[in-house]
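Retro notes
What went well: the complex prediction finally ran end to end.
Inputs used:
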Amino acid sequence: MVNRSLEVLVGFFICLGIAAIFVLTFRVASLDSVGSGGDTYQVSGQFENIGGLKQGSAVTIAGVRIGRVSQIVIDPYTFKAAVHMTIDGQYDNLPEDSSASILTAGLLGEQYIGLTPGGMQDPLVDGSELMLTQSALVLENLIGQFLSNMASNQE
Amino acid sequence: MRRLVATVAAVFAGIGRAQFFLINVLAALPAALARPRILAQQLHSVGVMSLIIVVLSGSFVGMVLALQGFRTLVRFGAEESLGVFVALVIVRELGPVVTALLVAGRAGSALAAEIGLMKATDQLSAMEMMATDPLKRVIAPRFLAMLISMPLLAAIFSVMAIGIAGGHAVGVSLLGIDDGSYWSQIRASVNAQDIVDSMIKSTLFGFSVAWIAMYQGYHAAPTSEGVSRATTSTVVLSSLVILALDFVLTAFMFR
C-alpha cells in the first residue's frame, strides 16, 4: 500500500531532479550557442595558421563578442585555413575592409578572432570574405626568428 | 582444454541469456507505466533513498575539486577560472560517473538482493502460479524507476557540487573568488550540449546498472550464497561497465 508520505517524497524527488536540470541549463550553461539561429550572417576569412582556434570560438570587436566561429575548413586551392564566422545580425554595418586577427585571451586563455573595423563605406554582407587577416602567433616561429636574428647579428 | 571451452561457452551463454532477459524486460516496460503506484514505490526506494548520499557526495566532491583546482590555478594566476574547472569536470565526467557508482552500490545491490531473495523464497514462482508475470509486476517497475532516477540524481549531484554547496562554498566563501566572475566564467565555457550529453550518459548508466542488477537477481542461485554472490557481482560488474561505458561515450561525445 502506497502511503501519503511516500507519494510526497517521490514527488519532491522528481521536482528536485527537474529543478536541478533547469538550474544546470540556465545557470551553468551558456545558451547563446543554441538560441542564435535567427538573425545572423556569415563571413569568412583565410588564415595562414589558426593556432588553437576552434569551432565555437568567439568573434569580437573591441573585446565585445559579436559572433562565433561556425566552421573551419582547408581551402582546396590556397591550402589556407578558411574560417567561417557567424556574426550577429545587429552588427550589419561593419566596414568591408575590416581586418581579422587571431588573438589569445590571457596567458592560458583560448584563442578568438578580433575584428578591427576599416574605413570603407560599404558594409560586410552575407558571404563576404575578409581580405586582411593576421594569423595566430606561433611561439615556435617567434623563437626561431629570434634565434636566427641573434645568429646573423653575431656574424 | 575442455574446461576452457566449457567456461567460454558459459560466458557466452550468460551474455546471451542477459540479452533475452533484456528484451523481455523492455517488452514488459509499458506494463510498469500501467502500475504507477508500484513505480512510485520503487522511485522512493531507488531515487529518494539515494538522495542523501548523492547530495553529500556531490558537495564534498565539489569542495575537494575547488581546493585542488585552486592550488594549481593560483600558480598561473588563473584562479578566476576555478569555476570553469569545477563545472567542466563535474558536468562532463564526475557527475554522471560518481552518481552511477553510488547508485549501483546503494540501490543496484539492494535490487539484486531483493529479487534474488524473492526467487530463493519462491515468491516469483508463486506469482507465476497466480498468473501474474513477475517481469511485469516486479522487474519492469524497478527497471523504469532506475532509468528515471539516474539522470535526476546526476543533475542534483552536479548542482550540489558546482553551485550550492561544493565549489561555490569553497571557491567564493573560503578562497575569496568573486561570485560574479565564478558564474560568468562557468557560463562562458559550459554549453547546453555538455548538459545534454551528461544527461544521456547518466541515462545509459542507469540502464546498464538496472539491467545488471535485475539480471543478477533474477538469475541468482536460490540459496543464501547465490543471493550474496548476485549482490557482489552486481556492484563489481556495474562499476566496471560504468567506467568502460564512460570511456566509450566520452570518446564519442567530447571529440
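What we learned: The mean pLDDT of chain B is 88.
What to try next: split runs per interface for comparison.
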